[in-house]
C-alpha cells in the first residue's frame, strides 16, 4: 500500500470512509445546556424565554473525535494486516536462495532465517526444487533439493564470525545456473560491503543474466561493529562502525577476563556519520583489566573487540637519584625517559621526596615496572621488597650514573667493576664508542642497529662466564651497553649509561623508544628463564585457545581453526577465526575487523531486481488495535458530552480552612558548642620559618650538645649580620622525623658518637631535602680524636656513627674540597675550613672533571650547583658558639691566631654558597667569560 508494508483482507469495505462527510452534518446539533438561576420571583419576569430558540452547535473538535472513531471502525472491518506475507512471483522454476552469512548478518539472523523459511514454504506449495547457497562457502556443492530437505539444511546454517568473500562463490553459482537453466533467485543480503562488493555485484549481474532476482534488504537494524581500540594516556577509546546513516546511540560495555563488567561508555552517531567513538574514562588499572569490549544489544562477532596484553597500558614508576630542583627540564635525568615512555605507558614520577619513599609508594601501588635512574644506595628493607617484587613478576630497569657506580647491591643483572669513589680510568675512552649489535636471543632482536649512537662513559661489568648470555646490546669494543636476566617470574635490566645525555646520546635516538617499548611489553608477561631473555623464537606459532562464533559468544575452536604465527595482526579468517590464541596466562587476541577496517553500504542499484523487506516475514493483524482505539474514543466522547451538558457536578465544596498551621522548626535549646582547641604547633613552626631566612640545626636530645650548637648557630647568624647583607632570623632546632625541612637552606647536624641510627622516616626526609636543593652539614666534631696515619680520620667514633646514618642515604660521590671549588671563594678567599679544630678535612660532592663529557654537556648542575652534603670533623658550631656576654664559649685547638675568625669566615662562605649556588660559580669563571668575549 503506497510503499508501506500494509494490506487489507476486505479492501472494498474501505468505501465506507466516503460516508464520513454525512456524519459531519448529523452530529452538528446539540440541545442547549441548562443554566442555574436564583429563585426570587421578580427575576422570573426578566428571564421569560422566547417562543423560538436557536439550537446550540456541537464543537468542531468533538465532531472530529466522533468521525475519527467511525473511521477506525471502518478500517478495522476491512481487515488490515501489517507486514503481510509476500512470496516471489508464482512460477514453476526452481528457487535459488543466496544467503549472506558473515558476521554482519548475525544481528538479524532470525529475520533472515524466517524470510528464507517462508520462501521455502512457498516453493514447497508450488512443488519447486530449492538450492541453498551460503555465500561464505565457495567450495560448497550447489544442488537442488526438495523443500523439506532445504528447510533442514537451513536450520543447520549459522553466521560465520568473520567477513565473507562473496566474489569467491561466483564460479560455483555460474556452473549451477548453466546446468539448471531457468530459475528464480532470491538474495538475502545483509547490505554491508566489507570489501570487493562492487566486484561481486558486477559478476553477479553477468552470471544471472535475464533471470528473475529478488533482493531482500532493509527492515532490520543496521549491523554495528567495533575496531581500532586504543588504550591512551587518559582513556581507552574504540571505534563504533556502521554502514548506513541516521541518528543512533548506544552503549559499549567493558568486561574483564572473568566475564564481570568493568564499565560502560556511550556512543552517538550523527545523521551522516558511519563511525563514531566510545571512550572509557577509567583508571589505568581498570583499563588494563579489560579483555573484551562489546556493543550492548548487538549479537555478532563484529560487535566484539577482544583485547590482549598489547592493549594494556602499563603504569611505570620512574625514580631518580639526582637532584630534582634544576630549573632546566632538559637537564633532568628523567626528561628523556618520560618522553620515551609516555606514548605507550602511564608514567608516574617519584620526584617528590626521597627515592626510597617513591620506591615504597610504587611497590604499594603494585606497578608492573619501575625504572631507577642513577639511584645508588638502598636500605636493606627496600632491597628485600624489590627482590620479592621481582620474583613475583616485576620488571626493574636501572640506568647508570655516579651514584649507581659506587653502590653495592645485587639488584643489577651483572656484577659491576668497582674503581673507588671516582669513576675515572676504565670508564672513559679516547674516543666515543658506537653501538655494535643486539643479541639475537634478547628482547631487542630484529631492531636495526643505529650507526649514529655514541657512548662516552659507561659502567663496566666484571667479565664472567654468563656475561655473554646476559648482554642484550654491545658496543664495538665488546663491552655490554644493556644487560638483563630473569629472576623468578620477573626481570632485572641495566642500561650501562645514564638516562640523560651526559654519558651517551642514546636517549635522543628512536631506538631508545623502541628498546623501552619492548621491555615494557615484557612487564607482567615474562616467560620462563632460558638461555636468552627474549624467550621464544620470533616465528613461533600459537594454537587457538577459544574462539567466537558468529553471534560473538565464546566456544571451543572449530575443526577448521589452525595455529597462527605469534605476531599475527590481521583480521580473522576461516583459518584463524576471532578469539584468543596461545597460552591461557598470556593469550593473543584476533578480531573480526582489523584496526584500519571500515564498513560501507552495499549499493545494489545496478542490478535489475525487485526488492523485498525482511519484515514481510512477520505479519500482524491490526483489527484488534483499531477496534480498541475506536472504543476508547467513544468513551471519551461520552465523558465530554456529560461535562458539556452539566451532568457532572462538583461533589465537594471548598471550605475555608484555618490559615495558619504552626510548625516548630527552630529549637533554641541547642547550646553553642565550644570551639575545639586547635593544635597550632605546625602552623607556628611554618610561620616562624618563612618569616625570615633562618639557619637550622638538628636537635640531638643531648642538652649540652644542643645548647652549644644553638649558641654556635646564633653566633654565626650575628656574624653574618655584621659582615654581610644577610640579616637572618634566630636559628631553629628541627627534628627530621617530624618537622618540615624545606623552609631552611642549610641544616647543621652534629653527629653524636654511639647514637642510635635515626628512624627510616627521618632518613627519607633528609634524603628528599637534599634531592630538592637543601644542604646538610654533618659535623662529627672529633678531628682531634683521629688516630695518626692514613685512614685514621675514618676510624673515629663520630665517623663510625656517621657511616651508620649515611648507609641508608643516597649520597653522591664525595671528594675533599678542591682549591678551585666555589666554596673557597664564595665570600672570603679561603684555603681550608677550620672550626674548634683545624686538622679535619671537609668533603663535598665531586665536581665533574674538565675532561669529562658531562662537564661540557651540562651547563648547569642539579641543585643550582650546590653540594647537597658537606662533611667535616672540625666542630664548626663549637668555634661559632658565643656566650651572652659576647665571649667565646669553648676554647680552640691548637688555638692559632685568627683561627676563630677563619672559622666564622668558613661559616659565611658555606651559608653564601648554599644561598647563591652557581651564581657565584659564574663569577669565578668571569675572567674566562670575558676572555672568550674578546674584551
Approximate helicity band: 25-40%
Structural class: alpha/beta
> Which strand-content bin applies to the residues?
15-25%
Q: What sort of overall outline do the alpha carbons produce when their principal axes are compared? A: elongated
Which residues form runs of ≥5 with pLDDT under 50?
419-427, 525-538, 648-679, 853-862
Largest sheet: 9 strands, mixed
Give the radius of gyration: 44 Å
Q: Count of helices? A: 23
**Could you tell me the number of beta strands?**
41
Query: What spatial order of strands do you see in the largest sheet?
Result: 18-17-19-20-25-24-23-21-22
| Distance separating the two termini | 100 Å
Average pLDDT, to the nearest integer?
A: 82
Oligomer: single chain
Can you give a write-up of this model?
With 935 residues, the chain is α/β, with parallel strands linked by helices. It contains 23 helices and 41 strands. The strands form eleven sheets. Strands 18-17-19-20-25-24-23-21-22 form a nine-stranded mixed beta sheet, with helices on both faces. It has a five-stranded parallel beta sheet with strand order 6-5-7-9-33, with helices on one face. A five-stranded parallel beta sheet has the order 36-35-37-38-41, sandwiched between helices. Helix 3 packs antiparallel against helix 4 and helix 9 (355-364) runs parallel beside helix 10. It is elongated and about 135 Å long. Mean pLDDT is 82; it is low at 419-427, 525-538, 648-679 and 853-862.
Question: What topology does this entry show?
Answer:
Blueprint (H helix, E strand, L loop, with lengths): L5 E3 L11 H7 L2 E2 L25 E2 L2 H18 L2 E3 L12 E5 L9 H17 L4 E5 L12 H9 L14 H11 L3 E5 L3 E2 L3 H12 L3 E5 L7 E8 L4 E7 L5 E8 L5 E9 L5 E6 L3 H4 L4 E4 L8 E3 L7 E7 L14 H7 L3 E5 L5 H10 L4 E5 L6 H12 L3 E5 L2 H5 L21 E11 L15 E4 L9 H4 E5 L4 E8 L2 E6 L14 H13 L18 E2 L1 E5 L5 E2 L8 E2 L13 E3 L6 E3 L9 E2 L8 E3 L7 E2 L1 H22 L36 H11 L4 E3 L4 H21 L8 E3 L11 E5 L9 H12 L3 E5 L17 H10 L7 E3 L26 E3 L7 H5 L11 E4 L3 H5 L18 H18 L1 H7 L1 H7 L3
Parallel strand pairs: 5-6, 5-7, 7-9, 9-33, 17-18, 17-19, 19-20, 20-25, 35-36, 35-37, 37-38, 38-41
Antiparallel strand pairs: 1-4, 2-3, 4-34, 8-32, 10-11, 11-14, 12-13, 12-15, 15-16, 21-22, 21-23, 23-24, 24-25, 26-29, 27-28, 27-30, 30-31, 39-40
